[in-house]
Structures are given as structure tokens and as C-alpha cells.
Amino acid sequence: MEKNLEKLWRSVLGEMEIQLSRANFATWLKNSQLTEEKDGTLFIVLPNNFAKEWVENKYHKNILGIARNFDDSVKKLEFVVSGQKMDAPKKISAETIKFENKINLEFKVDPESNLNPRYTLDSFVVGSSNELAFSAANAVIESVGSKYNPFFIYGGVGLGKTHLIQSIGNEIKSKYNGKIKTKYVSSEKFTSDIVWAIRNKRMEDIKKKYRDVDVLIIDDIQFIGGKEKTEEEFFHTFNALYENNKQIIISSDRPPQSIPTLEERLRSRFEGGLIVDIVYPEYEMRVAIIKSKLQNNNRELNDAVVELIANKVKKNIRELEGVINKIIFYQDMKNAPIGEKMVEEIIEKAIQNFTGRVSDSQIIKSVAEFYNVSIGDLSGRVRKKEIVEPRQVAMYLLRDILDMSYPYIGEKLGKDHTTAIHSVRKINHEINKNSSFFQKIITIKELIHKSK
Ligand code: ADP
Ligand code: MG
User: Fold this and answer.
1) Residue 95 and residue 312: Cα distance in Å, rounded?
2) For the whole prediction, is pTM greater than 0.70?
3) Is any ligand 1 atom within 6 A of the Cβ of residue 221?
4) Residue 163 alpha carbon to ligand 2 centre in Å
């Protein structure tokens, strides 16, 4: 098994990447390594004690589950801090070197701009679901700061928002030889910077950090909605940049008017710029993406298998990538082409991983969170208009994810079973005819998944 340790770890990381937010993944797992296996115990090395404790407490079970999925001889995990438990140096195989080079390329975030060079326009597959966003991105690169400001891009989880906005940053950096100062930040990081600055009375530093750039890229803006002080500071940063013709690029999982807690003045600012969406990719594009990912990994799969994947994995591109990584892993382990039946099994497992094991209260909580209504209202007898859709969606998801009985669903949400049946049908119907509604359901499912 030894020679496959790096492959195993690459596959586990691929899977963890699907499950965690990019920020979490980058913070906790990007510098991890699987260095040794002994009697079914995997030794995982983390860069410091803090990371070790965090990963041990939060991700132990997940990692073990995933590793066992790939290799059922795995029994236990041991987390160690690098330098603490280093056995005799191992011979480094050519494969390891290749793999490490790949990791370096993938994760070497530029400390100045915070951009990850792995995201390029070249590796971004364009199809009908994202071509508008793609050409808008190119237009922004051509005329930084002048015409399309702010550039606001929205769409569901895993559809390529981060990829696209980071690519814009990387492209601007190389096109203008680094003369245009570009900074990427997630809104979680932005928020934590503000909190830190307030606590340490260093607001001036933060102002300088974010206002002293030519291009500010801020990812997942929906997370700052409702955090008063952060929003206030973002608004001022926004205005300062905007008035000086600096480019602002924003991503969000929904359009500005649907971020319930976003302050009106900020919303109208966003609406004054260029707004485009990315939707989920249709079949042909999924095929194109699978082929491009295989090519990037120097792999091939026969057309029947590619079509099978495209048919079954519909949720988003991140999920597609996860499935492809897994298939590549199996292929390497077995050192033989992989059959359709095996692929089907892999997909089944991957998709189950995504939706399984949640409780009814997690579902209700996530729906309430998404629509910004209280759990009490949602599950009580309130007849407010704003509650109708969230309640129907909650009923639908209880059925869809947990396969609960209608009477039980009704009881959970303060209604009778006929209302539950009607609601589930209605949402089903809506999903089939309205793709942005479908997207909304996917976003909520993602929230549910994250709450696990
Ligand atoms: P989001 O930010 O919308 O949640 P990401 O940008 O993180 O989604 O995309 C998820 C994964 O899918 C990333 O690994 C990304 O590189 C890949 N991906 C997304 N869109 C495309 C695309 N059009 N072509 C190739 N890869 C893509
Ligand atoms: Mg993203």
C-alpha cells in the first residue's frame, strides 16, 4: 500500500474539498500530508499544533470515513505535527515529486494578491451556462475599472464563481505585468479582518489594506449581509474604490435583491454595475468539463463512461470533479481501465455522501436560515405570506432527503398531511419548470450539508 499513500491522500483531499468551504479547506488541510501507514493506521502530518487539534476535532470522522471508502484496510488515523514524528527519510519516488509539484502549483497562493494561480481562464470550460459570465469577465479584464463597475457575478455553489473571479485577477496581473494592484478576499476573511481591527484598534491598517488597491475581488458577499460593522466598512471601501475608478468584482450565491439582510444603499450600488449569473451546466457542458478534467490529469475514459458520469452527476462542477478524482484513484489502484458498473458504484457513493446523514431539525434550520425567517414561524401555524414558500420548501426537502412520511412532515411544520402532499408536489413542479428555482433548492441543500 505504501506506494499508494500519496494517491490515497490526494483522493481524500479531493473529497474533503467537496465537503468544506474553500477557505476552510485551504486553512486546515492544504498543508497536510499522509506520510506513513502502519497496521491500518494512517499518520497524517499537519504543520502546527493548532491545525492538528482543529483537524482532529472537526474532521477526524470525515477523513476516516473517506479513507475507508477508498481503502477498507484503514482502521485508524493518527495526527502528528510536522517535525514531531518523522521516521527515517523515505525514498522519494518520481510520482511523489510529480504529485508535489502539482500540489505546489495548486495551492501556492500569492501572498500579495491572495490569488491562487490554479484558477485560469484557460482551464475554465465555457458553455451556455456560463458564457455570458465568461465574456463579461473578459470585458472587465480589457477595461479594468472603467466600464463595468462593479462586476457582480452570482450562482449556486460549485458552479465556478470563485474560479472565474480568481481567473480575472490572475489575468489582470499577467496582462498588465503586475502594475495593477489586485487583491482577492473572501467575505469571511474580510469580516474577520474588521473584527480583528476593531478589537485591536487597527482600523487604519485595514482601511489601507483594502483601499490601496486597483482591483478588489470579494468572494461570497452574501456572508457579510447583516453584519453591521463589516457592511459599513465594506460600503466605505466600496465607495472609496468606486470613486477612484478602481475595479470591484463581487461574487454571491444569489442576486443582490435576494440577499435579505443587505443594506439598501449597498444593494443599489451593486445594481448599478454589471450583473451576470452562472447557472448549472447542461448535459453537453458536463461532458466537456469531464473531458477537460481528464485531459488535465492525462487520463482517458471511454465515451460510455463519460456519458454515464454526465448523466448521473448533475449537481455542480465541484461534485463532478470529486467523482472524477475518485475514478482516477480507483483506476490507479487497480491499474486497469474501469468498467461502467464500478463507475456507477463510485457515483452512487459520492452522491450519497453529499446528502445523507442529516436530521430533520438541520433541514428546517437551514431553510429558515436561507429565507431569513425564524424556525418558530416556519414550524408554527403562522399564516404570513413570507412563510409560504419556505415552509413548502422545508416539506419538500424533508421528503426528498429523509423520505419522511407525509403525516410526520405535516406535524413537523404545523400542517396536516394533505398540505404536505400538496407542498411537495408544488415544489417538484416548480423545480422542473424553473431552473433558477432549482438552483435555489440546490443552494439550500448545500447549506444543509454544511450544517452537518
Ligand atoms: P463556486 O465558487 O461557484 O462555489 P468554484 O469556482 O469553487 O465554485 O468551482 C468548483 C470547482 O469546479 C473548482 O474546482 C473549479 O475549478 C471547477 N470549475 C467550475 N467551473 C468550471 C468550468 N467552467 N470549467 C472548469 N472547471 C470549473
Ligand atoms: Mg466559491
Assistant:
1) 31
2) no
3) no
4) 7
